[in-house]
Amino acid sequence: MPARDERPTVETMVRRARERLDCDVLVVSDESRDGTADAARGGGARVLELPIQLGAWGATQAGMRFAQRHGYDVVITLDADGQHDPDCLPALMAEYERGGTDVVIGTFPERLSGAKRLAWGWFRGMTGLAVEDLTSGLRVYGPRALRVLTSPEATLLDYQDVGVLLLLRKYGLRVRELPTPMLPRSAGHSRVFSSWFKVAGYMLQTTLLCLARVGRLGVSDRAMRRAEGLSA
Amino acid sequence: MTPLLTAALLGVGTALVILYLVRRDQMHGRYAFWWLSVATVALVFGLMPSLVDRLGHWFGVKYPPTLVVMLVLAALLVKLLVSDLDVTRRERRIRRLLQKTAILEAELRELRTEVDALRNAASHSGDESDVAAVVVEPPRKVVG
Asked: Looking at CA atoms only, how far is residue A174 from chain B in angstroms?
């Protein structure tokens, strides 16, 4: 659970996640300055504290690396700001355990406003990704996905969205979606969609990323072997 | 001041500044190599400006100084590109290092809590030798 200055919500989120799933919860505090880490510990989470801000994906990857180091097979990521309802975690987990997939994404179709729909359409068209909600941070990652996403290759991504999905596809991993109800953000705000300037920057950056990756999309034998190599 | 003297001063000056920096250990490894090469070229052209004219003649350039400007621009472009690649590589390493720092810090914190708890338990039971044995024991799971 990546968190940046989410003190008001993080403790309840940790508690509720632990109640719903009976799992270990790890909060990655992305250079929070408001005591998020202590609040998270209060809720019973283990906490990573990044000394310098790495952004949502950097924090998430830190958590994944911790999980891998400590022998966890499956990692669920969700936002600490309260917009992802921990009540839906068991359903997501059940979907994952049904098998045949490496990643389950909890999608929020009703969230998509006109502008976002347009943006996602643009990225989908460019990449050919068949994923409804490209930016949802509510995801279940299995062991193969973890191996890909903890690699240095994934380190320079900035968001847990298109770049991550493209990387997963490059290694031939299977992604499934599960429509999920979403709560309104009780605190905090979208990092990406906070101002038009940022939106423009985000669109440009992600477009570039798509262009950079689009040539090597086909899952080659080599890519698969590399994925296997990673698992060795 | 003749143009010849200006060129010589510029070339030699550049070379001297670079040499000074490299000798002061302000420039590391392959950067030092690159800048020493630049210094050498600057020195050669500074001391023998007629070289430019001869080069221009060989390459069939009407106005030889443009050749120099073009080559310098090209070299700068390459250098910029290489340096941005380098910055990217560094950024990747720094991010991973920061993540590792956070991970190790969390592990250290948990181990410390455990050790403290054990120490407290031991001091209550009055058995000190047991503590040393526990402290030396390696951490439980170290994967990867």
From this structure: 24
